[in-house]
Amino acid sequence: MQIPTHEPGRSRTPFSELYEAHFDAVLGFVTRRTTDRHLAADLTADVFVAALESFEGYDFRRGTHRVWLYGIARNTLASYVRHAAREREAVATLSGRRLLDDQDVQRFEERIDAEREARGLLARHAVLSEPLRAVIDLVAVDGLTTKEAAKVLRISQATARVRLHRARVALRAERATPSGTFNTPLTEAAR
Question: SS3 letters for the chain?
C-alpha cells in the first residue's frame, strides 16, 4: 500500500508552476478591467501574493487553479475599486473638483470619435445588470466555461446559464434609436 504524500483535496502543483501557467490569463483578466497597465501589473502582483498566502488552503475539488485565481482577482479588483472610491471622495472633499479646460474637452471628443464602433457594444453592455455583465464577461471575454464562471461568482451553474442566456438575449435585442440611445426590455423595465 502506497502512502499519499499530500493531503486529499490539496493541490499537487507547486506554486511556481501555477504562477507560470496562469500569469498571462490573470494579467489579461485584470488588464481588461482597468485603464492603466501599471495598475494592472500591481493588481496582478497582489492577486498572486494573495494566492501564495492562501495556497496551503487551496482545494482542487472546488475548482481549477484558473477559477480559483479569477476569484481572487475579482476580490482584489473589488477591494481596489472600494479603496479608490474612498480616496477620490477624500481628495474631492479636501481640494474641490477641477473643471475641464478646452484641451481636456478636445481630447475627450477625439477619443470618442476614434472609438465609435466600440461605443455601440459598450453601450449595449452597459445596460445589462451587474450579475448579467459579470457572467458574460467571464464567459465571452475571459474564456471561462459557464461552470467555471459559476464557481468564480459563487452561484449555481444553472443560475450562471440563465444569466448568460439573458445577457445574450438583451445584447441581441438592442436597437439604436435616432438619438443614439438604446431601448431594450431591460431599460424599459428600469423606467
Answer: CCCCCCCCCECCCCHHHHHHHHHHHHHHHHHCCCCCHHHHHHHHHHHHHHHHHHHHHCEHHHCCHHHHHHHHHHHHHHHHHHHHHHHHHHHHHHHCCCCCCHHHHHHHHHHHHHCHHHHHHHHHHHCCCHHHHHHHHHHHHCCCCHHHHHHHHCCCHHHHHHHHHHHHHHHHHCEECCCCCEECHHHHHHC
Q: Which three cell numbers stand for residue 180?
A: 443614439
Q: Is the pTM of this model over 0.85?
A: no
User: Do 55 and 19 contact (CB within 8 A), yes or no?
Assistant: no
CA 59 to chain centre: 23
pLDDT tens-place values along the chain, 191 residues long = 343 344 545 556 788 999 999 999 999 999 999 989 999 999 999 999 999 999 888 887 878 899 999 999 999 999 999 999 998 888 777 675 566 788 888 888 887 776 765 667 677 788 899 999 999 999 998 999 999 999 999 999 999 999 999 998 887 775 544 444 454 444 444 43
